[in-house]
Amino acid sequence: MESPVGKKINSSGMSERKPKNIFQQGAIPATFIAESIQKHSSQTAIGGHSIFLGQVRADETENGKVKSIDFTAFEDMAQEKMHLIREDIFAKYPLTCMHVHHSLGEVQAGEICLFVFTSSAHRKAAMDACEETVERLKAELPVWGREIMENESHQWKVNK
Amino acid sequence: MESPVGKKINSSGMSERKPKNIFQQGAIPATFIAESIQKHSSQTAIGGHSIFLGQVRADETENGKVKSIDFTAFEDMAQEKMHLIREDIFAKYPLTCMHVHHSLGEVQAGEICLFVFTSSAHRKAAMDACEETVERLKAELPVWGREIMENESHQWKVNK
Amino acid sequence: MQVQVMIFGQLADITGTSELILHDIPDTDTLQETLHKLYPALANTKYAIAMNKKTIQGNTILTGDTNIALLPPFSGG
Amino acid sequence: MQVQVMIFGQLADITGTSELILHDIPDTDTLQETLHKLYPALANTKYAIAMNKKTIQGNTILTGDTNIALLPPFSGG
After folding, report:
1. What is the pTM of this model?
2. ipTM
3. Is B12 part of a structural domain of the chain?
């Protein structure tokens, strides 16, 4: 049931690997994450899932306390780039599947703005693939966060 | 809001670090995971969550296809050991919180039997702590899985 | 002096019981000899020993009432 | 020949617009000179350039209608 390393077809066929829209408007609800997990119960070759969630922090800055982040993206370029990252990760790790969701628009402090979900027969591949995907998308996707303060001033987020 | 490395008190007080019962009867529902994620939306110092989920695989074995795994544990010893692992992980990583849930009894193929959830201000600590916790609990907790086949024969699971 | 022996996982398949009470056992080597006489298949099986919920290495003196657990290789998660 | 210039993030705060159409620009160095004359603050700001959705390094000839994007440092996730 595992997709062979280096091959471009995985267990659920080509559809898994076609460019998928990773963007959705607003925060990613916990119920959406639960539904995504639940959908994998029919994939009984999976032994481990690794999930990373990015949550908006109410950072104290010199301009005030962060209330929300407003995300924008060069969507077309980000989708193409994400597709390349996905191809690389599937070539490197024996994954069953990978799902990536990123918010656009305003996300309040405490809400989820990034959901990366990898699954494989054994835990190591799922965990390593999840971490590498998160690092790569933060470095390579043309997405920008504008931090909106409680006093309505704003500043552009800087990734570490 | 972060707990200082090496200190024994975290942001939500001592209660977070007291021994907690990690065991629950049967599979861990996706809705339970969603509720656990949702509870963290008030913790606005958190920037990243890392989650590992163990799912029962329908492995093909010489004795038949795995239908479910029946988990047993030396519960008292496992709780004490898990408490030590938790103390070590909190001393090593600047975590906001950690939650571990493990199934006892029968869990069907495709269902979730392990849920490890770490959160921190920045992603690296959450991801590293999650991975280390998973590795340690698999190696150190006195828990055993009996694989039940579709033909009702059984064999004892061996961790890789 | 009483030793409570808890038996887990595949070891309980061998012994047919998950708990034994033994008396007047001076140390864990003697305990193992006694158990391997009662259940010869145990001698060919890999397991660790926990005394009062702590894994022990090598022969250990038993003083007072003691909880002993026979632990086959772990396979949780 | 027409160059569509898309401007993102904090760069759009500087230019006050998220899109410009420029004509008869032979290469990206000329494009940058033109933009920095229009918006002097851009010259002091770090950004990358994408041509038709691919990041480019160094001066690049523009042939035919081209999509150029000015990309400040990414901060998604």
Report:
1. 0.91
2. 0.92
3. no
